[in-house]
Specification:
Helix content is 84%, strand content 0%. By secondary structure, the chain is an all-alpha fold. Helix 2 runs parallel beside helix 7, helix 8 packs antiparallel against helix 9 and helix 11 packs antiparallel against helix 12.
Amino acid sequence: MDRDPSESRKPANESTAKDGAAGDEPTLHAAFLNRSWPIRSVMLTGIFFMLLLYTLRIAAPLVVPIALAVLLSLLLAPLVRRLARLHILESIGAALVMLALLSMVSTAFYLLADPAQAWLARAPETLNLLEIRLSGLRESIEDVQQATERVEELTDMENDDVAERSVEVERVGILKTVLSGTTQFLASAALVFFLLYFLLAAGDGLLLKLVKLGSSLEQKKRVVGVMREIQTDISRYLVTVTIVNICLGLVTAFALFALGVPNPLLWGTMVALFNFAPYIGAAVSLMVLILVGLTSFESLGQSLLVPFTFFVLTTLEGQLITPIVLGHRLALSAVVVFLAVIICGWMWGIIGALLAVPLLASIRIVCSYFEPLQPVVELLGVDGREEA
């Protein structure tokens, strides 16, 4: 029995269409997965960084001393290496460097502790004096004050009908607070001290252990070369920045001494320390020096000369000296630096804000030696517009 040719072709066409549709489904699904993968990758990366920041904040009592000890070891390692060239054992050289560092810190604390404590004790009196000095500014806003007084009078009339309530304030024991803070500080200082000594005494011991990571002799040589270059660059950066900050502090102290400001060495030390946190540190130093100037001199012009002098010095340092000394290779983006100081300050307090830029620069130096991490280097560095 003969079949209609059209009927014989119909199932074949239908099967072909079904096969085509079935073949398109995996293609569309794969395309969807390819498009959704970047979104999931970004989300996972964001979750990872959120967990990392939270972990670093919780582990601050442990992470901050370790980070400080590592940075100090990179800063002081050149001194230990120079002593080793004089045929002094690294363990003995590390002990000598630690003794010198401890002597410097103790001397600075001995010289600056009393002036700092006295200035903090006079802080309420200083604020009252500042309020009196600035009382002339209130006359220019007399209308605003009168309006405020009227609002307060109306508020007091309404509050006459409200029953008075006694409020008890629970006082926290000052001794307990001081002892708890002192205990934590001593524990962190001891951790930094001993870890710093062991890192300095180890010398190239850790580097030699990293050599074993390579499978061939060429890879081992490359690991040694890269690690030594990284150590050298980070040490050079830390030494350079430290010298620049110390010079800025000394020049500021000398300028304040010439202006007749009390305790110029204290304010110079403050400037040198706070300058490790760019922008924010300079802003805090400027505000403190404004208070110092207003409470040290009767004349308003002479008072404002104190912060103006510091503003000129820190501008020259930030815009001229530091860029010339560090160069483009170690320059960091202003936006990234500002965010790093804010985030590290939120996680670790004042110490974190001071460690933010050295840690950021160290990360950029390490990434610059690895080709896959070049986007990180570009992200942390400056571009043409920032240089201009």
